[in-house]
Here is the input.
Amino acid sequence: MGTLILKTATRLLTGLILVFSVYLLFRGHQSPGGGFAGALVAGTAFALFAISEGAQALRRAVRIDPRLLTVIGLLTALAAGMTAAIDAKPFLTGLWWGMGHGADAHAFIGTPVIFDIGVYLTVLGTILTLVLALEGD
Amino acid sequence: MEGKLPARVRWHYLAALLPAGLFALLGANLPATAGGQIWNWQVDWVAGLGATLGLRLDGLSMLFGLVITAVGTLVTVYSGAYIGGHRNTGRYQILLQSFMVAMLGLVLADNLILLFIFWELTTFTSFLLIGFEHDRTDARESARQALFVTGAGGLAMLAGFILIGQAAGSYSLTEVLTHGNRLTRDPRYPIILVLVLAGAFTKSAQFPFHFWLPNAMTAPTPISAFLHSATMVKAGIYLLARLHPVMSGPPAWTTTLTLFGAVTALTGAIMAFGQTDLKRILAYTTLMALGMLTLFLGGTHTAALVAAMTFFLVHALYKSALFLVVGILDHETGTRRLDAVRGLRRPMPWTAAAALAAALSMAGFPLFFGFVGKEIMYDGALSMDFLPGPVTVVAVAANTLMTAVAGILFVRPFLGRLDAAGTAIHEAPPPLFGGPLLLGGTGILFGIIPGWVSRWLIQPAVHAMGQDGSPVTLSLFHGLSLPLLLSIITLTVGVGCYLSRHTLARLVFQGTRVWPLPLESAYQGVLRGILGIGRWQTRWLQNGSLHRYLFVIIAAFVGLSTWALAAGGQWPAPGGIPELALREWLLVGLEAAAVVAVVMTRTRLVAISGLGVVGAGLALIFLIFGAPDVALTQLMVETLTVIIVAVILLRLPDLRSRECGDRPVRIADGLLALAAGTAVAVMLINATAAPLDRGVTAFYEQQSLVAAHGRNIVNVILVDFRALDTLGEITVVALAGLSAFALIRRERNGRGGPWER
Here is the structure.
């Protein structure tokens, strides 16, 4: 299916969509988006790439085994949950660093964000696993 | 076999440091427990379930703990020489030490839930150890049998523990034990008793569950010595002793334990005669011992409990020694058959000495610890609450047969003339005969100083079982009394039984043919039945056809929702035409047109695109009603579904082909689809008819920014408020992905996948 139009569009779009997906991931806490939606967007980017360039090219481009990505995602989410133990809080309690309180909150990093990154990686890894397995030779 | 050890097995002796160290640690606390102190250690674990990591060391735990660690040390050293050259020695040692620690945890646990976990760990490690020679079919089958029987009992026991926890208000043994007769007066007591006994009886191989123990003799012999004589099978005995203070007393306890114990003891003692494999003989005599222990725990008087604890120690010493001796014979002569070799006392003097000491203790000769134990047993039998007379007869009969078996075990292999083939046999290396020699020697030592044993080991254990503080004394000579007379009868008749052993063996052999105990075939029947049900339902439900799966799932959904609606829902009142804005009407039209296209089309690509349109329309509806997050996710899921399904569809047969079902199938599918759609619609109308409870939403709206620093409530719920749910969901996502990968790969490799059917 590698027509010229599709190939050219894919070159342009894949990167854009990926950037957009990361944008969705990080804005999720305040506006529509989040790890799950972001990962789905990234998944479409890779699916597009696979349709245009083939599964082999996608496998080369991704570099790491998507199953490993899934596992890393799960472990990241787990680790984010475990971090609460530092503060002697129950599993998965959110911890925030560098923030104000109430209405003038200007939080920049907290364990829920890391947890969301874990969700992102898990879902993306799963989609890539499926796409590569199905598109494979 | 050679007498010198390969260098690579020496590290096994290092592993013995673990049990030896634990033995020393326990021994250092001996004065404290003998003085009646209870050592306690608690850490909160799952506080919500009442499960704490609590350990407790009292006289009873001490007695069992010392036996576990002492026999564990000797068995570890022995194993180094026994299993040394095997390719899986590392696995063997790890399993052995894991079992030892689990068993020690079992007798030290202060929390019933913790006790159950250790209990299951011993079941599990025992399964792996019985099946250690896993390339042999009989080893695998015996391991599975032991796992099923003891595992099923363990689950029943867990249910019993939970009921105990409810009745006593705590899972802590320390607390449960303070409640006196609160458990026995509880209306749930009969159920608790049945469940706990199911656990104890399966683990301790009581009739009618005893058949797994002789089969478990496929384990390496040191494992049998450790697990199937001294420790694991005693776990049930420990449990009965542990709960004795709060559960004994009612007739249900005394009669059940006495009867089952007596039947087990007699079965074991009689069956031991019909065997020719030395290990199976030992297994059946172990059944006899376990039966006697259960029987004595059925009593409530101090004498019966002293008998149980003393005989536990006596049996642990002589039986593990005899197992280890049989292991040596197997190792050095290559056979375990009773009549295979004779006259081994000449080439193997040390082994013969160990066997002699153990056998004499087993037979209960004076000056041996077994003699002390036997007198105490008769004392206990006469004090039983339930049928003391018959119980005493059973005890005498079982002990008589044991005396004869002890004779067979020593005389047959070790005495007599060594034949020509036997001249090549050498004495085993010291690590092999050292263990049994030490155990046999301890049997003599304890027979000489019974006062010390009763003061430091037996009395604290009996006192820990809630008996009043009256002193317990064991001695070699109790004076001219009924027990002494019974002991003399036992020895005399035992010698008579030994002399007529061939007649007895023939009787047992013919007896089992005339009246075979159908227990094992019953077990096999149950197993076959379960497998049959499994195969049947696999053929029907799990036949690999996606069409069948979807049909079953959707039909179940329709059935359940109809049932729920019939129970509490109402048929929607026919309302007028709803007032919708133009764009909403357009959306409805789009959706309807897409659905019609999906149903009518003859090509899969159109069908999947139509479904995509339906999904995208849904996303638009979400967007209109102010749920951008859901809309975004919906849109992306639809897009990906279309892409992925399109890839698959290209490989599937055409919709018109016969493979997609003929007319009746299609009609059934259509009807089911209509029913499912109707059910969803009715449920939605019902759900929206009720006023929406905004309490939860209000909470999230209020707390989202304050507590979780986020304005997007949906995301805050996902990653913070209900992050545990999300963690579970992404785990499912990952597992589903990996499973799909495995399935696709399987199909690729040409081994037949679900799509090929």
Summary: Residues 4-135 of chain A form one domain. The CA atoms of residues 2 and 52 of chain A lie 5 Å apart. Chain A touches chain B through 54 residues (CB under 8 Å).
